[in-house]
Design a protein that fits this description.
Helices cover 21% and strands 25% of the residues. It has 162 residues and is of the alpha/beta class. It is globular.
């Protein structure tokens, strides 16, 4: 495959999506329980700690070639949580918090769902767990809502408008 653009100057790549996203958690077992038991995702093998890396595993978000989320366990991990902003959005879906970013580089991770029915089932499951989440918002061709995992990381569930 020719990796140069039509002018022969800039490299051109055929990206296949993301391979994985690396995150930290203070409790790998609790993280695996949340993603498997609440979200229905599949955790892979747990790898032992070595050198500066804590125990770690990949959590695969559905039928994808991506390896998914790669969680590393660090008991002293400090994760910026936006649960308070999400709670304010629960009380007032039109709150200015909808357009604010939280401190830190990672704002949220968005996962695609196959249908609105699945999204409603997920919302019900999250509500039963007492998980903080926003209202459902329309974004043109998609609808979505945001919630926080047990670490405080914002997760977006998104699906195409039917």
């Amino acid at each position: 495959m020719d990796v140069l653009d039509q002018h022969g100057k800039q490299p051109r790549f055929h990206w296949l999506g993301f391979h994985h996203i690396a995150l930290v958690t203070p409790d790998l077992d609790a993280t695996i329980r949340f993603y498997e038991d609440v979200l229905g995702m599949k955790a892979g093998n747990i790898y032992p700690a070595m050198k500066q890396r804590g125990r770690h595993c990949f959590i695969k978000p559905g039928d994808t070639d991506a390896w998914g989320l790669h969680f590393f366990e660090y008991p002293d991990a400090e994760i910026t949580s936006s649960a308070d902003a999400i709670r304010r959005l629960m009380d007032d879906p039109g709150s200015a918090d909808l357009y604010r970013f939280v401190p830190g580089a990672l704002q949220h991770i968005a996962f695609a769902l196959a249908s609105e029915q699945e999204a409603m089932t997920l919302r019900q499951t999250l509500q039963q767990q007492g998980t903080v989440m926003t209202d459902i918002y329309g974004q043109g061709a998609i609808r979505n809502f945001i919630f926080v995992d047990q670490n405080g990381v914002q997760i977006e569930a998104a699906w195409e408008v039917e």
